[in-house]
Every structure is written in structure tokens, then in C-alpha cells.
Amino acid sequence: MIEISQNILIREDELSFTFSRSSGPGGQNVNKVNTRVTLLFDVEHSSSLPPDAKSLVLQKLSTRINKLGQLQVSSYRHRTQFANRLATVERFVDLLQEALRQEKPRKKTKASRASRERRLAAKLQRSRLKQSRRSGTGE
Questions:
Q1: Nearest in space to 83 (alpha carbons), one of 26, 138, 136, 27
Q2: C-alpha to C-alpha distance for 29 and 83, rounded to whole angstroms
Q3: Angle CA(58)–CA(93)–CA(70) in degrees, nearest 5?
Q4: CA-CA-CA-CA torsion for 55, 6, 101, 46, nearest 10 degrees?
Q5: Contact 93, 4 (CB under 8 A)
Q6: Would you say 52 and 43 are in contact if contact means Cβ atoms under 8 Å apart?
Q7: Which label site among 22, 74, 91, 125 has the fewest CB atoms less than 10 Å from its CB?
Q8: Model's pTM, two decimal places?
Q9: Is 135 left (phi over 0), alpha (psi -120 to 50) or beta?
Q10: DSSP code string of 100-138
């Protein structure tokens, strides 16, 4: 089980991995060994995610989800398939945690009186600078 949050656990059998050759570090190794790892997680058909969590993930990670509703995470940084597999799972957990994090509502604030006065003073100074550049005759 992969823990995403206190109340969300993803079963490992819901994840599938594909392996391919990568362009990362490894010299001749990259020409012979399938070290690139792509993790696929079917968000739409997952039994581990509650419906509200599914909709949040689908909305916030839409650029990483393919037409079949699968979240894709890849890694090819490391020389070994095993290390890249661990890196994809770690990145997967980070992505889901970020997508499921509740954003705090923004508190409306007013600009302070001093900041408004500074802005107006700067506008006035800029206006005077531009005015001084103008020719006085207009011809």
C-alpha cells in the first residue's frame, strides 16, 4: 500500500509500469537496457480514491492524464531500472499529495494609506519627468 494521506491509501496492484530505453546517464548502458520507467495509474477507475479526490486529481493533473484517464509519471534520471522505479513512485506520491492539498482561501485586503500615497507620489514624479521632456512651443 502506498500512503498518499492519512485516509487515502493506493493499492500497489493499481499501478502499472512500462520500461523503455532512456536518454539519461549511463553511456553504452542506455543503448542496451530499458532503464526509463513510466508509471501508469488509472485515476477514473481507481477504487482507492474517493470520488471527490478523483475529481480534484483529474482537474489539477489534467496535463499528465491521457485520454484513457491514466496518470503518467516517468523517470530516467538514474542508471538502473530499480532506482527509476522508486523515483517514479516517489514523484507519483508527491503529485497526488500536491493535487489533493486544500488551498487556503485568500483574505481580501486593502492597500494601506501609505502605499496608496507612495503610488500617487511616484505617478506624479513620472508625470513631471515626462512633462519636462516636452517642447514648450509645440511647433
A1: 26
A2: 15
A3: 35
A4: -20
A5: yes
A6: no
A7: 125
A8: 0.64
A9: beta
A10: HPPPPPPPP----HHHHHHHHHHHHHHHHHHHHHS-SS-
Name the DSSP class of 93. H
Residue found under cell 499528465: 64
pLDDT category at 125 given cuts 50, 70, 90 is very high
For residue 16, what are the β-bridge partners? 40
Write out the DSSP string of 13-24.
GGEEEEEE--SS
Q: Is the pLDDT assigned to residue 32 strictly greater than 60?
A: yes
* Grid cell digits, residue 5: 494521506
Residues 66, 62: Cα–Cα separation, whole Å: 8
Q: What is the residue type of 106?
A: R
Q: pLDDT grade, residue 71 (50/70/90)? A: confident
Domains and CATH numbers, the chain: 2-100 (3.30.160.20)
Task: List Cβ neighbours of 45 (8 Å cut-off, separation of 6 or more).
Answer: 69
Residues, the chain, total? 139
Q: 86: which 3 cell numbers?
A: 522508486
pLDDT at 119 over 90: yes
